[in-house]
């Protein structure tokens, strides 16, 4: 079963606009990660935020984490057509050792030129 | 460094057959994980291998198995295939070491399995 839900399930924006997607999860985590997937291909790691961090930036990406609400958001600023993809959040559990990630259902983002 | 490679990229099998998928991790990565992706269930964790030992296991039936070799390459096997096993199978490697986990994972392009 999936750890969390992502909202919205799909998002359509114009190039240059910002895209925001949210992720909620159910159990305590060690960290939360965001991945991008282009058209049924492999996933590309975007950013990792640890449970003791509240915000993290990487280029045009900004991720926030609110452990009290068990939620995270991913903001893509100044979107480009190349940002069209599905975006997934994934959590690493607090107690489990190793690299078991639990993924959300994903947000499909379409950036129109 | 070369990325994670998976072979084959596409596979068509019939019900009842078995299949073996292969994954070569990034050089130096000792952790290899497998995930199944379907439209209905999304991305689900199958298992993780580290230093030739299964370290984590997801909630899949025993028909799904895997192993890891001394060079960190991994294989997963699905026996007695069912229609519902049709999916994209993704392999991911991580530079995880003992006691240091929860790193980012580097995914391969996947093997798309179709069961007829």
Word description of this protein:
The complex is a heterodimer of chains A (113) and B (116). With 113 residues, chain A is mainly beta. Helices cover 0% and strands 58% of the residues of chain A. Chain A contains no helices and 11 strands. In chain A, strands 2, 4, 5, 9, 10 and 11 form a 6-stranded mixed sheet that branches. Chain A is globular. The termini of chain A are far apart. Chain B has strands at 5-7, 10-13, 19-24, 31-38, 42-50, 53-57, 64-68, 74-78, 87-94, 106-107, 111-115. Chain B is 0% helix and 52% strand. The mean pLDDT of chain B is 92. Chain B starts with a strand and ends with a strand. By secondary structure, chain B is mainly beta. Chains A and B meet through strand 4, strand 5, strand 9 and strand 10 of A and strand 4, strand 5, strand 9 and strand 10 of B.
Q: What is the gist of this entry?
A:
The complex is a heterodimer of chains A (113) and B (116). Chain A has no helices and eleven strands. By secondary structure, chain A is mainly β.
């Amino acid at each position: 079963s999936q750890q969390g839900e992502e909202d919205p399930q799909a998002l359509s924006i114009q190039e240059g606009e910002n895209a925001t997607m949210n992720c909620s999860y159910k159990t305590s985590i060690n960290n939360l990660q965001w991945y991008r997937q282009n058209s049924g291909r492999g996933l590309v790691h975007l950013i990792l935020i640890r449970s003791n961090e509240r915000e993290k930036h990487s280029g045009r990406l900004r991720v926030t984490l609110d452990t009290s609400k068990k939620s995270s958001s991913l903001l893509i600023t100044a979107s480009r057509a190349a940002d069209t993809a599905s975006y997934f959040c994934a959590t690493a559990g607090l107690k489990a050792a190793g690299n078991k990630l639990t993924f959300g259902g994903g947000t499909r983002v379409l950036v129109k030129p | 460094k070369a990325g994670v490679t998976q072979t084959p990229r596409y596979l068509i099998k019939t019900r009842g057959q078995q299949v073996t998928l292969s994954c070569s991790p990034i050089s130096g990565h000792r952790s290899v994980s497998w995930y199944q992706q379907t439209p209905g269930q999304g991305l689900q964790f199958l298992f993780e291998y580290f230093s030739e030992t299964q370290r984590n296991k997801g909630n899949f039936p025993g028909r799904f198995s895997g192993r890891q070799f001394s060079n960190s390459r991994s294989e997963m096997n699905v026996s007695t295939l069912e229609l519902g096993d049709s999916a994209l199978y993704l392999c991911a490697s991580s530079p995880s070491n003992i006691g240091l986990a929860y790193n980012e994972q580097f995914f391969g392009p996947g093997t798309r399995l179709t069961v007829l």
